[in-house]
Amino acid sequence: MNSSKSPGLAGFGILKNTTCHTEKKISVFFSIIFMTVGILSNSLAIVILLKAYQRFRQKSKASFLLLASGLVVTDLFGHLINGAIAVFVYASDKDWIRFNQSNILCSVFGICMVFFGLCPLFLGSVMAVERCIGVTKPIFHSTKMTSKHVKMMLTMVCLFAVLIALLPILRFRAYQIQASRTWCFYKTEHVEDWEDRFYLLLFSCLGLLALAISFLCNAVTGITLLKVKFKSQQRQGRSHHFEMIIQLLAIMCVSCICWSPFLVTMARIGINESHSKETCETILFALRMATWNQILDPWVYILLRKAVLKNLYKITRGCCGVHIINLHMWELSSIKNSLKVAAISDSPVSSKQINLQPLSSMGQ
């Protein structure tokens, strides 16, 4: 069968020479468990973020919560759609020839894999940029970064991810059934055509670029928060700084650890062309690592909150008996206070007012 002449049967040649075997019962069981855990954790995170958004609707934290809600919703639908297709494939004994004669299911699966892979990475980088602007330029953020602009950014990010996912279909290039016969993606075996290499490199480069932007912006945000904390002699906002730094580090580590193996593997396949030595087991392991990102993402927002960190501090202090931070610092923190400190320190108007106060007192 020639896949270039028969797009409806694309990828069926892989089914005869597959070298990657998975146990049906175990694979179905783990697929259902992962999908269920992902859906429940993302649903819980959505509820928490929506309640927080209602509290901070008119404050500068609302834009961050709106972007975080978009990220968690994307992860939720990714688990729901991709997980349901994967369970169906396993339950059907991976007999693609029987249920995928027109290649519609494989095309839908491939589009969803690309979209729900890139969209969370893009949203994570947009969140990092938004937080960096909010901390380093709080006045600009409060005046220009409205909820309307954030919703426009969310829409643009989703449309761009959809365009990347539909690019092979628009170019009449079918998504391929992979060697494990459990998922569909770009062509990863015997990659000789420049267009197949282009899709792999485009996907991996965009993903790695999003991770690099997140890493850079989160580093700048963390350093700025530490500078503001040490400059300020007050205790206001200290716990918020501590909470934000922990969340930034957690999000950055989870994304890099989970996505780097898959993105690097796809880049190596695209660069090495037909001489790639990546095995089916390596690709499948990298894919499962990337799937864990959608499971762990919501737990960053569920666990690394002020209330949870406060209880963890109490437990740690009780076990270790070490006094590190005064507990009442947690009660004084708010995003408004921390941004107010940064805004006052950066605002030229405040410095003028400080200089005018001694002159007015001398005149009196």
From TrEMBL:
**Protein name, entry field:** Prostaglandin F2-alpha receptor
Q: Which CDD domains match?
A: 7tmA_FP
Q: Which domain of life is it from?
A: Eukaryota
Cellular compartments annotated:
Cell membrane
Membrane topology note: Multi-pass membrane protein
Enumerate the UniProt keywords alphabetically: Cell membrane, Disulfide bond, G-protein coupled receptor, Glycoprotein, Membrane, Receptor, Transducer, Transmembrane, Transmembrane helix
Residue ranges annotated for the G-protein coupled receptors family 1 profile domain, each copy included: 41-301
The GO terms this record gives for MF are: prostaglandin F receptor activity
Q: Assign the protein's first listed, main location to one coarse class.
A: membrane
Q: What InterPro entries has UniProt attached to this entry?
A: GPCR_Rhodpsn, GPCR_Rhodpsn_7TM, PglndnF_rcpt, Prostanoid_rcpt
In the UniProt record, which is one GO cellular component term? Answer: plasma membrane
| Pfam families per UniProt | 7tm_1
What is the organism of origin for this protein?
Answer: Buteo japonicus
The transmembrane segments are 26-50, 62-90, 102-129, 150-170, 198-226, 246-271
Instruction: Please list the GO biological process terms of this entry.
Output: adenylate cyclase-activating G protein-coupled receptor signaling pathway; inflammatory response; positive regulation of cytosolic calcium ion concentration; response to lipid
